[in-house]
Amino acid sequence: MILQIYGYGEAVLRKIGEEITPEYPNLKETIANMYDTMYHACGVGLAAPQVGLAIRLFIVDTTPFADSDEVSKEEAEQLKDFRRTFINATIVKEEGEIWGFNEGCLSIPDVREDVFRHEKITIEYFDENFEKKTEVFDGLIARVIQHEYDHIEGVLFTDHLSALRKKMIGKKLQNIMEGKARPDYKMKFANLKIK
C-alpha cells in the first residue's frame, strides 16, 4: 500500500525515532508499505518518520544509481540490487574523505543541494528478520544510508547546509509547508490537513 509522505515542517520529521522490538505491530506490513511508497515516489531510501512513524526504521535500494554515468563500473555493480532494511540502526564510525554530492529528499520535493558527508561508515542494525548485523559501507551506498539515518535522528539534509544556502531555499521550504509543492506522489503537508 502506498503511504503519504510527510513534508518539510511536519513535527514527526524532527523527532528522534524510538527503538522497536520484533513485536512492533504490523512490522512486516509497514516495511512492505514503505518499499511500495519509496518505489512509487522513485526514491532510493525512505525512513519511517517520512511516513509519520517516529521509530528507528529505514529502507534503502540504490539500484537506480547503478545506471548513472557518474559511477564507475565497479561501483555500479555494488549499487545494483543493493536493498536493505535497517532497524534500530546505530552508525558507530564515520571515516575517510568528506565529499559532496547533490542530495534530494522525498519530504522536501524540488529542492536539491550539495551535502558533504564521510565516504565510509560502520553501522550496526537489525534486518527485517531481527538478525543483528555490523557492516561497513562506502561511496553512494554509505551516503544514502547516512541520509536515511539522519531521518531517524530528527535531522534533514537541509540541516547540513550553510546559513546562506538555507536562506536561499527558504521560500521553497515555505512553499512545501503550505502545500504548494506538487510532486508525483501523495504528501501530507504541515499547514494542510490532506493533499
From TrEMBL:
Residues involved in Fe cation binding: C105, H147, H151
Cofactor note: Binds 1 Fe(2+) ion.
EC number: 3.5.1.88
Domain of life of the source: Bacteria
Presence of the UniProt keyword Protease in the record: no
Single biological process term from Gene Ontology: translation
Active site positions: E148
Keywords associated with the record: Hydrolase, Iron, Metal-binding, Protein biosynthesis
Required cofactor names: Fe(2+)
Catalysed reaction, written as an equation: N-terminal N-formyl-L-methionyl-[peptide] + H2O = N-terminal L-methionyl-[peptide] + formate
GO function term, MF aspect, one: peptide deformylase activity
HAMAP family given in the database record: Pep_deformylase
Family annotation (NCBIfam families): pept_deformyl (TIGR00079), PRK00150.1-3 (NF001159)
Family: Belongs to the polypeptide deformylase family.
Purpose: Removes the formyl group from the N-terminal Met of newly synthesized proteins. Requires at least a dipeptide for an efficient rate of reaction. N-terminal L-methionine is a prerequisite for activity but the enzyme has broad specificity at other positions.
Name by which UniProt lists this protein: Peptide deformylase
Species per Swiss-Prot/TrEMBL record: Flavobacterium indicum (strain DSM 17447 / CIP 109464 / GPTSA100-9)
Gene name for this UniProt entry: def
